[in-house]
């Protein structure tokens, strides 16, 4: 049986890890390179780094930071934010990342998915999806709308339909983030997570809302998600990776354990 992955997200602004609630009120926490290296030593399965202001500032992702991360992190990691074209993707991968995450760019230019998959392989392409509950309508039958530019712009795209289309275009993985639960720490948005995870074949990472290890076990018990992304619960020292994985194992969720766990 395939193990379920535990992934830590590090949102980066001005080379500092930052965390907010529902994309607002961000607070700086620490250095992304050092934090990533420590999480790697502590036994997390993967890391995600988002340069959260790159797109708004119309600049390239911080490639030097990616190189520095690659020197100290020895587990798979992906990078997003400030990805404008295939050349930016190439530079991120050359700097040492295993995957590139695209979000707003994919919505505005869907062909970037198929072009990226052709150039670098499906396994390198991650679709970041920020979704918000708006209620079921003829245009949004799932009840969840895709939003872009850090949640500031509506798209009138149905989340489930966009996931299907991205898969057809060649995306290798989807990171599904609920803005409604982001940073709230009351649990994942299970409804849309299961709607998408049971419909598509590529792995789905659930993001937004984890506050306790019980939320992660609930996610895997009630959805077909392949991975759980966490941030606040580890960034602020509330729980360790060892504690989270021990809870997963105790609840019979297949998980990769370190000796220290």
Concise summary:
The protein contains ten helices and twelve strands. It is of the alpha/beta class.
Describe this structure in words.
With 261 residues, the chain is α/β, with parallel strands linked by helices. It has a single domain, classed as Aldolase class I (TIM Barrel, Alpha-Beta Barrel), CATH 3.20.20.70. The protein has 10 helices and 12 strands. An 8-stranded parallel barrel has the order 1-4-5-6-7-10-11-12, surrounded by 6 helices. A hairpin with a 2-residue loop joins strand 2 and strand 3.
Summarize the SSE layout with pairings.
Layout: E1 5-13, E2 16-21, E3 24-30, H1 32-42, E4 46-51, H2 63-72, E5 77-80, H3 86-94, E6 99-102, H4 104-108, H5 111-120, E7 125-133, E8 144-148, E9 153-158, H6 159-169, E10 173-178, H7 190-197, E11 204-207, H8 213-222, E12 227-230, H9 232-235, H10 241-250
Parallel strand pairs: 1-4, 1-12, 4-5, 5-6, 6-7, 7-10, 10-11, 11-12
Antiparallel strand pairs: 1-2, 2-3, 7-8, 8-9
Helix pairs in contact: 1-2, 8-10
């Amino acid at each position: 049986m395939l193990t379920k992955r535990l992934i830590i997200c590090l949102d980066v602004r001005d080379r500092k890890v930052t965390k907010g609630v529902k994309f607002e009120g961000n607070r700086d926490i620490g250095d992304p390179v050092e934090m990533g290296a420590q999480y790697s030593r502590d036994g997390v399965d993967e890391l995600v780094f988002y340069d959260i202001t790159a797109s708004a500032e119309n600049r390239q992702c911080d490639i030097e930071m990616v190189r520095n991360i690659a020197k100290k992190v020895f587990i798979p990691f992906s990078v997003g934010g400030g990805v404008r074209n295939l050349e930016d993707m190439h530079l991120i991968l050359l700097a040492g990342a295993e995957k590139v995450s695209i979000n707003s760019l994919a919505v505005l230019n869907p062909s970037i998915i198929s072009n990226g998959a052709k150039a670098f392989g499906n396994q390198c392409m991650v679709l970041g999806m920020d979704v918000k509950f708006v209620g079921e309508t003829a245009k949004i039958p799932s009840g969840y709308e895709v939003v872009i530019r850090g949640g500031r712009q509506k798209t009138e795209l149905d989340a489930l339909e966009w996931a299907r289309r991205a898969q057809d275009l060649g995306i290798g993985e989807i990171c599904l983030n609920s803005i409604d639960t982001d940073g709230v720490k009351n649990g994942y948005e299970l409804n849309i997570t299961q709607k998408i995870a049971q419909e598509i074949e590529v792995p789905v990472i659930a993001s937004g809302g984890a506050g306790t290890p019980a939320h992660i076990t609930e996610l895997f018990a009630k959805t077909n998600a392949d991975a759980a992304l966490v941030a606040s619960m580890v960034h602020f020292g509330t729980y360790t990776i060892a504690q989270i994985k021990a809870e997963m194992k105790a609840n019979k969720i297949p998980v990769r354990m370190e000796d220290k766990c």
